[in-house]
Predict the 3D structure of the following.
Amino acid sequence: MKNIIICIFITLINVFVLNLKSNAQQLNKDEYYTAMSSNNISEINTQLEILKNATFDDKDAFEGALLMKKAGVISNLREKLNLFKSGHTKLEAAILKHSDNIEYRFLRVIIQENAPGIVHYKKDLTADCDIIKNAFSKLLPSLQQHIVNYGKVSRLPILKELQMNSR
Protein backbone atom coordinates (compact mmCIF):
# COMPACT_ATOMS: atom_id res chain seq x y z
CA MET A 1 0.00 0.00 0.00
CA LYS A 2 2.82 2.36 0.87
CA ASN A 3 4.44 1.71 -2.52
CA ILE A 4 1.18 2.49 -4.33
CA ILE A 5 0.84 5.81 -2.51
CA ILE A 6 4.46 6.69 -3.34
CA CYS A 7 3.88 5.83 -7.02
CA ILE A 8 0.74 7.96 -7.15
CA PHE A 9 2.56 10.82 -5.45
CA ILE A 10 5.47 10.63 -7.91
CA THR A 11 3.05 10.48 -10.85
CA LEU A 12 1.21 13.56 -9.59
CA ILE A 13 4.47 15.47 -9.20
CA ASN A 14 5.52 14.52 -12.74
CA VAL A 15 2.17 15.66 -14.15
CA PHE A 16 2.44 18.93 -12.23
CA VAL A 17 6.00 19.56 -13.48
CA LEU A 18 5.03 18.76 -17.09
CA ASN A 19 2.10 21.19 -16.87
CA LEU A 20 4.39 23.91 -15.54
CA LYS A 21 6.85 23.30 -18.38
CA SER A 22 4.17 23.36 -21.05
CA ASN A 23 2.66 26.57 -19.60
CA ALA A 24 6.08 28.23 -19.56
CA GLN A 25 6.57 27.36 -23.22
CA GLN A 26 3.39 29.09 -24.36
CA LEU A 27 3.44 32.56 -25.85
CA ASN A 28 0.23 34.51 -25.63
CA LYS A 29 0.08 35.82 -29.20
CA ASP A 30 -2.60 38.40 -28.39
CA GLU A 31 -0.34 39.97 -25.76
CA TYR A 32 2.66 39.64 -28.04
CA TYR A 33 0.98 41.46 -30.94
CA THR A 34 -0.35 44.10 -28.56
CA ALA A 35 3.24 44.80 -27.52
CA MET A 36 4.34 44.80 -31.18
CA SER A 37 1.71 47.38 -32.05
CA SER A 38 2.49 49.65 -29.13
CA ASN A 39 5.34 51.95 -28.30
CA ASN A 40 5.07 50.94 -24.66
CA ILE A 41 8.55 49.89 -23.56
CA SER A 42 7.13 48.14 -20.48
CA GLU A 43 4.88 45.88 -22.61
CA ILE A 44 7.75 45.17 -24.99
CA ASN A 45 10.11 44.30 -22.13
CA THR A 46 7.50 42.05 -20.54
CA GLN A 47 7.16 40.08 -23.77
CA LEU A 48 10.94 39.93 -24.19
CA GLU A 49 11.24 38.51 -20.68
CA ILE A 50 8.64 35.86 -21.48
CA LEU A 51 10.53 34.96 -24.65
CA LYS A 52 13.86 34.90 -22.83
CA ASN A 53 12.53 32.18 -20.54
CA ALA A 54 10.62 30.31 -23.24
CA THR A 55 11.82 27.09 -24.79
CA PHE A 56 9.63 26.66 -27.87
CA ASP A 57 11.24 26.32 -31.30
CA ASP A 58 10.13 29.53 -32.98
CA LYS A 59 11.12 31.77 -30.12
CA ASP A 60 13.95 33.44 -32.09
CA ALA A 61 11.66 34.87 -34.76
CA PHE A 62 9.37 36.44 -32.19
CA GLU A 63 12.23 37.67 -30.05
CA GLY A 64 14.06 39.09 -33.07
CA ALA A 65 11.04 41.08 -34.25
CA LEU A 66 10.42 42.39 -30.75
CA LEU A 67 14.06 43.44 -30.33
CA MET A 68 13.83 45.42 -33.57
CA LYS A 69 10.55 46.95 -32.40
CA LYS A 70 12.23 47.95 -29.14
CA ALA A 71 15.06 49.55 -31.13
CA GLY A 72 12.48 51.83 -32.69
CA VAL A 73 11.15 52.93 -29.32
CA ILE A 74 14.27 53.70 -27.30
CA SER A 75 16.36 56.82 -27.73
CA ASN A 76 19.96 55.68 -27.09
CA LEU A 77 21.48 55.44 -30.57
CA ARG A 78 24.11 52.82 -29.72
CA GLU A 79 21.55 50.60 -28.00
CA LYS A 80 19.12 51.14 -30.90
CA LEU A 81 21.67 49.86 -33.38
CA ASN A 82 22.70 46.90 -31.21
CA LEU A 83 19.10 45.85 -30.60
CA PHE A 84 18.21 46.18 -34.26
CA LYS A 85 21.22 44.13 -35.38
CA SER A 86 20.57 41.43 -32.79
CA GLY A 87 16.90 41.24 -33.68
CA HIS A 88 17.65 41.25 -37.39
CA THR A 89 20.03 38.32 -37.00
CA LYS A 90 17.47 36.27 -35.04
CA LEU A 91 14.52 36.97 -37.33
CA GLU A 92 16.44 36.45 -40.57
CA ALA A 93 17.95 33.18 -39.28
CA ALA A 94 14.47 31.93 -38.37
CA ILE A 95 13.11 32.86 -41.81
CA LEU A 96 16.07 31.21 -43.52
CA LYS A 97 15.49 28.04 -41.49
CA HIS A 98 11.69 28.08 -41.97
CA SER A 99 11.13 29.97 -45.22
CA ASP A 100 7.57 28.67 -45.50
CA ASN A 101 6.49 30.12 -42.14
CA ILE A 102 4.04 32.88 -43.01
CA GLU A 103 3.94 34.32 -39.50
CA TYR A 104 7.69 34.99 -39.62
CA ARG A 105 7.16 36.82 -42.91
CA PHE A 106 4.39 38.82 -41.29
CA LEU A 107 6.68 39.78 -38.41
CA ARG A 108 9.27 40.92 -40.94
CA VAL A 109 6.65 42.97 -42.80
CA ILE A 110 5.71 44.79 -39.59
CA ILE A 111 9.36 45.68 -38.97
CA GLN A 112 10.23 46.50 -42.58
CA GLU A 113 7.28 48.80 -43.06
CA ASN A 114 8.25 50.81 -40.01
CA ALA A 115 12.05 50.62 -40.20
CA PRO A 116 13.83 53.86 -40.99
CA GLY A 117 15.45 54.02 -44.42
CA ILE A 118 18.91 54.33 -42.92
CA VAL A 119 18.88 50.64 -41.85
CA HIS A 120 18.13 49.46 -45.42
CA TYR A 121 15.64 46.84 -44.27
CA LYS A 122 12.89 46.93 -46.85
CA LYS A 123 14.12 44.66 -49.64
CA ASP A 124 11.73 41.77 -48.85
CA LEU A 125 8.65 43.86 -48.15
CA THR A 126 6.83 43.32 -51.45
CA ALA A 127 7.68 39.62 -51.67
CA ASP A 128 6.60 39.02 -48.08
CA CYS A 129 3.31 40.85 -48.64
CA ASP A 130 2.63 38.71 -51.72
CA ILE A 131 3.38 35.53 -49.78
CA ILE A 132 1.05 36.60 -46.97
CA LYS A 133 -1.72 37.49 -49.42
CA ASN A 134 -1.42 34.18 -51.28
CA ALA A 135 -1.45 32.11 -48.09
CA PHE A 136 -3.97 34.18 -46.15
CA SER A 137 -7.00 31.91 -46.62
CA LYS A 138 -5.01 28.90 -45.36
CA LEU A 139 -3.74 30.56 -42.18
CA LEU A 140 -5.10 29.94 -38.71
CA PRO A 141 -7.97 32.32 -37.94
CA SER A 142 -6.01 33.85 -35.06
CA LEU A 143 -3.10 34.78 -37.36
CA GLN A 144 -5.54 36.07 -39.97
CA GLN A 145 -7.00 38.33 -37.30
CA HIS A 146 -3.58 39.68 -36.31
CA ILE A 147 -2.85 40.43 -39.97
CA VAL A 148 -6.24 42.13 -40.41
CA ASN A 149 -5.67 44.17 -37.25
CA TYR A 150 -2.28 45.27 -38.52
CA GLY A 151 -3.84 46.08 -41.90
CA LYS A 152 -5.96 48.73 -40.16
CA VAL A 153 -2.85 50.78 -39.35
CA SER A 154 -0.63 49.71 -42.23
CA ARG A 155 0.10 51.85 -45.26
CA LEU A 156 0.70 48.76 -47.42
CA PRO A 157 -1.97 48.30 -50.10
CA ILE A 158 -1.91 44.49 -49.94
CA LEU A 159 -2.53 44.45 -46.20
CA LYS A 160 -5.21 47.11 -46.56
CA GLU A 161 -6.85 44.89 -49.17
CA LEU A 162 -6.79 41.87 -46.84
CA GLN A 163 -8.23 44.00 -44.08
CA MET A 164 -11.03 45.26 -46.34
CA ASN A 165 -11.81 41.76 -47.72
CA SER A 166 -12.13 40.23 -44.27
CA ARG A 167 -15.14 42.32 -43.31
In short: The chain is about 75% helix and 0% strand. Residues 28-165 form one domain.
